[in-house]
Design a protein that fits this description.
eleven-stranded mixed β-sheet; globular
Length: 368
C-alpha cells in the first residue's frame, strides 16, 4: 500500500508522500516580507537595514519541511493572481500544487515579520485569499471522495475555521490519519466545541497547551490557573500543562506532542490497548555557531515529525505498530532538524535536508 499525506493550509494545501505514505496538507501560503532591526519595541517607528521577500505561511513551511525530510507533498489552498510566482517556487521544492486554486478576485495573503538581533520575531498576518472557501464551493455537490489517494491529513488553524472542520471530518470519514497544529490558537468557544476525538495527533507548544487546557477545562478560570501553576512547579521537566491536557476526556483518543523550545519535547502517545498514556521525553538538539533565528523552527519540527509518522500506516497505534523507541527516534530527528533551522536565517530557506540532519546526528553519536 502506498501512503499519501494531504496538507490543507494557508497559501496552499499539500499532499505529502513520505516512505510509502502520502499526506495531504490544507493550509495557507503567504508572501512573507521580512525586516531586520536591533530589537522589537511597541508604539515606535524604527529603521531596518534589510528587506527580504519570501514564501511563507505555516502550511507552506511545513510542506517544504516534509519534502526536505523525504516526503512527497500535495498542497491544497488558495492564492491570488499576484501569487503565481509562489506556486512556481513551491513546485521547485518538489511539492504537488494540483490542489491550489488561483482566485481572480482576492489578494495572496501577506505575513510581515520583524526579526531582532537576538533572533526573536514579531509577525503580523493579512489572510487574503487564504480565507477563501473556493475549495468548499467546488466540492460541495461532489459525491466522490475528497482525498482518494491520501492516508494522512495535516491541518493548521490559518484557513477559514469551517474549512478546517470540513477537511478534518471528511478525512476521518475516509480513513485518513489526522494531524492538527492549532496555530494560531482557536477561540475559547471553538476549543470547547471542536471535535478533538477526530484528531489522531495534536502538535502544540507550551503556550498552546495552556490555552487549550484553560479553554477545555470546565472549572473556573482561577481554579484552572492555580492547577496549571501547581503542575508546572511540581514537574521536573517542563511541559506539565500538557499532561493536564492529556488527562481531559476530550483528548482521550488524541496523541499529544508538546514542544518545549530549548528544553526539548514531550510526547503523550496513547497506548493501543487503552491503558492510558506513556510519556516520552527528548532533550533539545545541541546548536552550533552563534547565529539564532527562531522563525519557522516549530514548522520545521512539525514537517519532520509528520514525515516520521508517515513511515507507518494511517491506522498505526502506539504500542502496536509504533514502539516507544520509534517515537523517540522521530522526536530526536525532528528536534535536530528544528535546531539546525535556528542556526540559519529565515524560514523555508533555513530548513535542512534529511541527509544533513542524519549527518549531524551521526556526528553527535561519534562524539559521544
Amino acid at each position: 500500500m502506498q501512503f499519501k499525506l494531504i496538507l490543507i493550509a494557508f497559501l496552499l494545501s499539500f499532499t505529502v508522500q513520505v516512505f510509502a505514505s502520502k499526506v495531504l496538507t490544507a493550509s495557507r501560503v503567504y508572501h512573507t516580507i521580512i525586516s531586520q532591526s536591533p530589537y522589537i519595541v511597541l508604539r515606535t517607528t524604527m529603521v531596518t537595514w534589510t528587506y527580504e521577500s519570501r514564501v511563507g505561511g505555516k502550511g507552506a513551511n511545513q510542506a517544504v519541511a516534509i519534502a526536505n525530510a523525504g516526503g512527497h507533498v500535495q498542497f491544497f489552498g488558495t492564492v491570488g493572481k499576484d501569487g503565481k510566482w509562489i506556486v512556481e517556487y513551491m513546485e521547485e521544492h518538489a511539492i504537488d500544487t494540483s490542489g491550489l486554486i488561483v482566485s481572480e478576485g482576492e489578494t495572496t495573503g501577506r505575513a510581515i515579520i520583524q526579526v531582532s538581533d537576538d533572533g526573536e520575531n514579531s509577525i503580523v498576518l493579512f489572510p487574503g485569499a487564504n480565507h477563501s472557501e473556493l475549495h468548499e464551493t467546488k466540492n460541495v455537490s461532489s459525491s466522490e471522495p475528497r482525498f482518494p489517494d491520501a492516508t494522512h491529513l495535516l491541518l493548521q488553524n490559518e484557513i477559514n475555521y469551517q474549512s478546517t472542520l470540513a477537511s478534518l471530518l471528511k478525512a476521518k470519514d475516509e480513513g485518513l490519519c489526522t494531524i492538527f497544529n492549532p496555530s494560531p490558537m482557536l477561540s475559547p468557544a471553538q476549543i470547547r466545541t471542536f471535535p478533538w476525538d477526530k484528531v489522531d495527533w495534536l502538535l502544540i507548544n507550551e503556550g498552546e497547551a495552556e490555552a487549550l487546557y484553560r479553554g477545555s477545562c470546565p472549572e473556573s478560570q482561577d481554579s484552572t490557573a492555580q492547577k496549571v501553576s501547581q503542575t508546572a512547579s511540581n514537574t521536573s521537566v517542563k511541559g506539565g500543562v500538557a499532561s493536564l491536557l492529556a488527562s481531559l476526556d476530550a483528548f482521550t483518543n488524541t496523541n499529544i506532542i508538546c514542544t518545549l523550545g530549548a528544553d526539548g519535547v514531550l510526547a503523550y502517545p496513547r497506548r493501543s490497548d487503552g491503558s492510558g498514556i506513556a510519556p516520552v521525553y527528548r532533550p533539545a538538539a545541541t546548536l552550533q555557531g552563534d547565529f539564532r533565528d527562531t522563525t519557522g523552527a516549530g514548522d520545521c519540527f512539525t514537517g519532520f515529525f509528520v514525515s516520521g509518522l508517515m513511515q507507518y500506516p494511517p491506522d498505526a497505534r502506539f504500542g502496536r505498530e509504533i514502539s516507544e523507541d520509534g517515537i523517540s527516534r522521530i522526536l530526536e530527528f525532528s528536534n535536530q532538524a528544528a535546531g539546525m533551522s535556528v542556526e540559519r536565517p529565515g524560514t523555508i530557506d533555513s530548513f535542512p535536508k534529511r541527509s544533513y540532519v542524519e549527518q549531524r546526528i551521526n556526528q553527535g553519536l561519534e562524539a559521544s
